[in-house]
Amino acid sequence: MDPITEEDIANYLANCPDFFERHAQLLASVQLTSPHGNRAVSLQERQAEMLREKIKALEHRIMDMVRHGNENMVITERIHRWTRALLLTQSNRALPATLVAELQNQFMVPQVALKVWDVDERYAAEPFAQGVSEDAKTLASSLTSPYCGVNSGFEAVNWLEDTAMAMSVALIPLRPGAINGAGPAFGMLVLSSPDPQRFQTGLATDFLERIAELASAALSRLRPR
Questions:
Q1: 133, 138, 143, 148 alpha-carbon torsion, rounded to 10°
Q2: d(C-alpha 178, C-alpha 6), whole Å
Q3: Is residue 26, in this structure, part of any structural domain at all?
Q4: For strand 187-193 and strand 40-42, is the pairing parallel, antiparallel, or unpaired?
Q5: Rounded to whole angstroms, how far apart are CA atoms 205 and 113?
Q6: What's the start-to-end Cα distance of the chain, in Å?
Q7: What is the pLDDT of residues 78-129, one digit of tens each?
Q8: Region label for 149, one of left (φ > 0), alpha (ψ between -120 and 50) or beta (otherwise)
């Protein structure tokens, strides 16, 4: 006969749940090693320790969920105030400056720059529609989501007032409709910070995508009709 293995014993116990009812004294005599030292503990005590560890892990997860929920509420409120400021701006010429200033104020971004192109001829001479090369336009159109990371010598970073302080940047393409649409971009937002971790690679971009789509919708007033 083949020797009995641990797997055979485990399968037997799993298929015979009344085994320990028939041998209740066996449970009381089982001794296990505690994970918090080399002392031996009873099976009941070991199970209690495992439950305490699971409860502690769940408490940490709940606290993380609450913290993330609070952070999301704060960001949502800031987006609301920023969007409201855009809706209250009646002058089309003043809209880009308001958009930039409110982004800086509401989201505490040290530097923000904005350029738009293919605008109506009435706005073609405005500073926000000047100084954009074809390479920068091509880069904006190639992005289907915000770029977050270090400044790798992007031309668009030169739109900022102090490029030396742009240690991390977010490049946000502006196009009609969804940010990941197939159409070409008609503008780009540049956000920067002296903190290398502010816009780090791998950062979740959900809120930046919402900002891109809201900004694109607001700035559509500057385009030819």
A1: -30
A2: 58
A3: no
A4: unpaired
A5: 18
A6: 88
A7: 999 999 999 999 999 999 999 999 999 999 999 999 999 999 999 999 999 9
A8: left
> Domain span at residue 81?
76-222
Can you give the CATH number for the domain in which 198 is found?
A: 3.30.450.40
Instruction: Write the single-letter amino acid at 194.
Output: P
Q: What is the per-residue burial (b if ≥16 Cβ within 10 Å, else e) of 208-218?
A: bbebbbebbeb
* Average pLDDT score over residue span 8-27: 79
Residue 189 inside a domain? The answer is: yes
**Residues facing 42 on adjacent strands:** 31
Question: Is the pLDDT confidence value at 38 over 90?
Answer: no
Pair of tokens at residue 71: 């952070």
**Are the C-beta atoms of residues 196 and 221 closer than 8 Å to each other?**
no
pLDDT score at 56: 86
pLDDT (0 to 100) of residue 63: 85
Does 54 map to a domain? no
Beta-strand pair 168-174/147-150: antiparallel
Structure tokens at 25: 């004294």
Is residue 155 situated within a structural domain?
yes
Neighbouring-strand partners of residue 168: 150, 193
- Place 8 in a pLDDT band, splitting at 50, 70 and 90: confident
Arithmetic mean of pLDDT, 207-224: 95
Share of the chain above pLDDT 70, in %: 91
